Amino acid sequence: MRIALFSTCIVDAMYPRVARATVDILERLGHEVVFPPGQTCCSQMHVNSGYFDDAYSIVKNHVDAFSDWDYDVAVAPSASCVVSLGHQQPMIARHAGDEGTAIAAEDVAGRTFELSKLLIDVLGITDAAEQLGSYFPHKVTFHSSCHGMRIMQLGTRQSDLVRTVEGLEFEELPDLDQCCGFGGTFSFKNADTSGAMTADKVKNIESTGAEMCTGGDVSCLMNIGGALSRKGSDVTTLHFAEILASTKDNPLEVSGPVALTTTTGGK
Amino acid sequence: MTVTQLGMPKVFHGTGNIAAEESFTSFAGRELKNEQLRANLGFATHTIRDKRAKVVGELPDWELLRTAGSEIKQDVMARLPELLEQFEKNFTERGGKVHWARDADEANQIALDIIREQQAEEVIKIKSMATQETGLNEYLEENGVSAVETDLAEEIVQLGEDKPSHILVPAIHRNRSEIRDIFLKKMPHIDKDISDNPAELAEASRHHLREKFFRNKVAISGANFGVADSGTLSIVESEGNGRMCLTLPDTLISFMGIEKLVPTFQDLEVFLQLLPRSSTGERMNPYTSMWSGVTPGDGPQNLHVILMDNGRTAALADQVGRQALHCIRCSACMNVCPVYERAGGHAYGSVYPGPIGAILSPLLTGVEAEENNSLPYASSLCGACYEACPVKINIPDVLVHLRGKDVDAKHGKGEEGNKRQAPDQMDAIMGGAKAMFSNSTLLSIAERGLPAGGLAAGRDHKISWLPGLIGGWTKYRDIPEPPKQAFRHWWKKNKKNGPKQRAASDRVDVDALIAKNSGLAEELHRRHAGEAQEEREEAQEQAAELKKEQRREPDMVRREEDLLKGQDDSSNGTTGEGTSSQEGND
Ligand code: SF4
């Protein structure tokens, strides 16, 4: 199968290791990955901030970048960005009176999957240890991002996959359904409220005794990780793709307080 | 999408207590420093939240009920003029009088005129969001009429010369000893040795009110529902004070927003299931009163309803925003909202706090009203409100829509008369990001600057678009160390894309794969469900412990709940715990 990777802007610029882990997992399963080079961002930050006119040209860019290539499915390691494709892009195109782009956006969105959904619902993965060779001998808790949980209705797909990793000790997070306080520009527009929400999330994470908190959206993880780091906590955050990519032969290296790096080059 | 089009009549925005005087951000910033308030709100909202989740979980057709509620309300909005006239006709035929009020001032004036006709100097009231919206009590006070709130929590707020902070539990911010002090000060015949025992306080309140119920000739209410095909009005409540107000006085004046209609009597079936469960977490509320016109010799003989617009037509004209008018004021959205839980109700300025307030207030006043334009941003868009809303109002979508209108207004677009404002910091950030996100070549060049350490400085223009690189972010969080290389550059160096196009024979039937794997996710979920459930219970226990530690004076937060329980138990013998007062009255 040919899979087009939509890395998302924040992974591309700040967490390339998450995109590399995604590529690694998919190639391990024998699939061809392409990276449409015209891609940038889903436009969510602009839409959620009310900048609909600015968002329009970003939407057009995404639709062009992904309509141009022949692939079976596209994948993004983020529920939030995938939701934005189907939910917000057509609205933005229509707002600008561009029905053609709206329909093309719906088409691209219809072929783009969040990573855990692709792995389970399309590729039939239900046991990471067995089917992917995933090995990660650490105590891990999991944060469920709001958009995956409520808009995409991902259910427990991401955490269920994490639970099947060999050597991993899973700790359930209290108040799992509570927002981490990120909310895009909310995090600095209403910094105090956002900070209070994040502080509570961090307390819950620390109460689990886990070494790391994983999840499916690096934006939430950057928020949580940033607050943990500010507090001087040893707990770090990482994307679940990184955990799935880690194997006995090629383990994920924990290096430093915030950053983790993959050593995989993909084969 | 502009609301006003040329040749259309002017849009009338709402007036009254629906406009904030201070931005949400700065008000919330202050409230957040009040640790006690935060702990109290956290405890109270979580308690109601859990109760709601439990009783909602009991109904196998809950989602269908929500859909029905949403569709009935959509129908009402589509046929509002027709249904209002039908209601007017039926209410009038059955001996009532219908008044139309364009805004808060008109509604208050109409009520005052009726009260003056009756030569009353005091009136009794059932808790009502509509009259809070119009500021009726203050208006009457200025005109020499005192309005006595008969709902316990509302009475506490009124006697304490305070403002409500929740639409259902207005005195959520008061504790019992405070209540005792308020009563001692404001109730003339009270026993001076009264303790702060909830039952004693409820008893004092009952004596105080009973006398008012018998003495007064005029009552004022809101209305939960107005039924178009019968001209019926309905009030849903827990304490029984509503029933007293609706039956004892000779004159009854009900304030009702024009959106409160349902087409037929049978439609009430849906809402009377949705409201109590969403609101107080009860299966059924203790009192549901309905009145259809005048019955000679029984109940009020002089019956009025004031149909109030106050910005609702403007909200209706907004295609995305109009769903806010579906609201039945159950308060579920604020009880589940993480922002409300921290900032509290007063931060929203308007009488409508929480997620619904963040959309309804700016819709009623126009988002262009400067005071209210901070409200659509008072949300992380987590979606908990939408999930809980019994009539499926997609609050996050409306919030985003209103942000769009706010930005348009600032850019001199949208409603006529909007002036272009000088570009601010947000405009600069968004403009720069737009340029890069619309062109991958520009983005690629910018990303080359990542390892240069620009991030650490946070002032590098090339990377200023990154979420959170500004002000508020670093107040509470660190910025992660930037990577050596953006992903696109790594890809270019280490990988190669295949050709853009492929032979048709290389394509895979994805739909067939999905069909084959259908049910896998559920199977996987089930495999872990048992252990997950156990862990979850353990985790929740830990969280509860944590919260207990955070609560410095646990007794304080139970106050209102206890108080109302005391009232319920002794006054009407219901066994249900009354955590609330009036249910979603409007
Ligand atoms: S918007 Fe809020 S108060 Fe209104 S019906 Fe929905 S949940 Fe209830």
From TrEMBL, chain A:
<protein>
    <submittedName>
        <fullName>(Fe-S)-binding protein</fullName>
    </submittedName>
</protein>
<dbReference type="InterPro" id="IPR004017">
    <property type="entry name" value="Cys_rich_dom"/>
</dbReference>
<dbReference type="GO" id="GO:0016491">
    <property type="term" value="F:oxidoreductase activity"/>
</dbReference>
<feature type="domain" description="Cysteine-rich">
    <location>
        <begin position="3"/>
        <end position="85"/>
    </location>
</feature>
<dbReference type="Pfam" id="PF02754">
    <property type="entry name" value="CCG"/>
</dbReference>
<feature type="domain" description="Cysteine-rich">
    <location>
        <begin position="140"/>
        <end position="224"/>
    </location>
</feature>
<dbReference type="GO" id="GO:0005829">
    <property type="term" value="C:cytosol"/>
</dbReference>
TrEMBL record, chain B:
<feature type="compositionally biased region" description="Basic and acidic residues">
    <location>
        <begin position="544"/>
        <end position="568"/>
    </location>
</feature>
<dbReference type="InterPro" id="IPR017896">
    <property type="entry name" value="4Fe4S_Fe-S-bd"/>
</dbReference>
<feature type="domain" description="LUD">
    <location>
        <begin position="84"/>
        <end position="308"/>
    </location>
</feature>
<keyword id="KW-0677">Repeat</keyword>
<keyword id="KW-0249">Electron transport</keyword>
<feature type="compositionally biased region" description="Basic and acidic residues">
    <location>
        <begin position="522"/>
        <end position="533"/>
    </location>
</feature>
<dbReference type="InterPro" id="IPR003741">
    <property type="entry name" value="LUD_dom"/>
</dbReference>
<dbReference type="InterPro" id="IPR017900">
    <property type="entry name" value="4Fe4S_Fe_S_CS"/>
</dbReference>
<keyword id="KW-0813">Transport</keyword>
<keyword id="KW-0004">4Fe-4S</keyword>
<dbReference type="InterPro" id="IPR004452">
    <property type="entry name" value="LutB/LldF"/>
</dbReference>
<feature type="domain" description="4Fe-4S ferredoxin-type">
    <location>
        <begin position="324"/>
        <end position="393"/>
    </location>
</feature>
<keyword id="KW-0411">Iron-sulfur</keyword>
<dbReference type="InterPro" id="IPR024185">
    <property type="entry name" value="FTHF_cligase-like_sf"/>
</dbReference>
<dbReference type="Pfam" id="PF13183">
    <property type="entry name" value="Fer4_8"/>
</dbReference>
<dbReference type="GO" id="GO:0051539">
    <property type="term" value="F:4 iron, 4 sulfur cluster binding"/>
</dbReference>
<keyword id="KW-0408">Iron</keyword>
<feature type="region of interest" description="Disordered">
    <location>
        <begin position="521"/>
        <end position="586"/>
    </location>
</feature>
<dbReference type="GO" id="GO:0046872">
    <property type="term" value="F:metal ion binding"/>
</dbReference>
<dbReference type="Pfam" id="PF02589">
    <property type="entry name" value="LUD_dom"/>
</dbReference>
<feature type="domain" description="Lactate utilization protein B C-terminal">
    <location>
        <begin position="416"/>
        <end position="495"/>
    </location>
</feature>
<dbReference type="InterPro" id="IPR037171">
    <property type="entry name" value="NagB/RpiA_transferase-like"/>
</dbReference>
